[in-house]
Write a structure and sequence with these properties.
about 300 residues; alpha/beta; 6-stranded mixed beta sheet; 14 strands; elongated; binds adenosine-5'-diphosphate; binds magnesium ion
């Protein structure tokens, strides 16, 4: 295990930012911490990276305890904080030399800086001042500094926030590339990011973990809500579809389209087809409506607000 979080609670004044949270991340995984603003994502990341102590619970990174072995933890963790704080007046290479110095890389630092500049695609920018770079390139500098000491674990707090669509794609592919050799925990409130980058998603809401599943599994989760979308030539009495075994509910989407909520994992398309024919309904198209992480996320975070 690269990261083990056990029964962690973090309290700010009256507020529990993390409420008895447990989570393990295996070596080599790319895990998304997904949740709305204020969910506790940054707090969890600050605890893992030794910037904040937990009030209760244990956190170990590569076997080292964040409280009693924080220097060792800092050696094995690379961290890109939220809002990527950088020194705008420093040159890219100068800044990386400064960070290499903090990590006491010594004679290895020249080679490492060269590798990082290459790996993060900063070859054309490394002689520029950080303040002169675009947001996407500043993120690359942030990722380069997080990687410079070759940590086993990489913690990225909202690495793509504020990027334009092209930069977003570039940074996501950089994270995926880096993730081939590292354990990565990244936070995001963007569902598409999870689907694009991560093997597994942990959903956090109001300081509590409300779901933890492989990204693919979460998309398929809630099989009780398999949805068939069917298009007809006009409106029919679609309520009748509820007579079919397994159909839980029917929602009219527009004049010609209906969404059929199926309670089981059965493929009811053939039944829907035959039912339409029997009733002289003209069916034009039919397919599954994928349960996206987004829908599941909405559902789960909504439900936990209710409880
Ligand atoms: P996220 O990163 O998911 O948006 P945070 O971990 O930053 O959430 O914050 C979780 C909760 O803890 C929020 O309600 C936030 O206001 C509160 N919080 C975070 N840091 C502090 C702090 N230093 N002092 C007081 N409250 C804080
Ligand atoms: Mg945050």
């Amino acid at each position: 295990m690269s990261i083990i979080i056990k029964d962690v609670t973090k309290i700010f004044g009256e507020q529990k930012a993390l409420d008895n949270v447990s989570l393990s991340v295996e070596k080599g995984e790319i895990v998304a911490l997904l949740g709305p603003n204020g969910a506790g994502k940054s707090t969890m990341m600050k605890i893992i990276t030794c910037y904040l102590p937990p009030n209760e619970g244990d956190v170990k990174v590569c076997g080292f305890d964040v409280l009693s072995e924080s220097l060792k933890v800092r050696k094995v963790v690379g961290y890109l904080p939220e809002n990527n704080p950088l020194y705008p007046d420093m040159y890219v290479r100068e800044y990386l030399e400064f960070i290499a110095g903090i990590h006491k890389l010594g004679s290895k630092s020249g080679e490492r800086i060269k590798d990082m500049i290459y790996q993060t695609g900063l070859e054309l920018e490394h002689h520029k001042k950080i303040g002169a770079l675009s947001k996407g390139y500043r993120q690359r500098v942030g990722i380069a500094q997080a990687l410079i000491h070759d940590p086993e674990v990489l913690i990225l707090d909202e690495p793509t926030s504020g990027l334009d669509p092209n930069q977003l794609i570039e940074i996501r592919s950089l994270v995926r590339e880096v993730g081939k050799h590292k354990t990565v925990l990244l936070s995001t409130h963007i569902m598409q990011e999870v689907e694009a980058v991560c093997d597994r998603v942990v959903i956090i809401n109001r300081g509590k973990i409300v779901a933890d599943a492989p990204t693919r599994e979460l998309q398929l989760l809630n099989l009780t809500n398999r949805i068939i979308r069917a298009e007809f030539d006009k409106t029919y009495d679609w309520e009748l579809l509820k007579n079919l075994n397994g159909v839980m509910d029917v929602h009219q989407e527009n004049e010609k389209t209906v969404r059929i909520f199926v309670s089981s994992n059965d493929d009811l398309r053939a039944e829907v087809f035959h039912f339409a024919v029997k009733n002289n309904w003209v069916l034009l198209a039919m397919g599954f409506d994928d349960q996206s992480v987004e829908q599941v996320f909405r559902k789960l975070t909504f439900e936990s607000k209710q409880s």
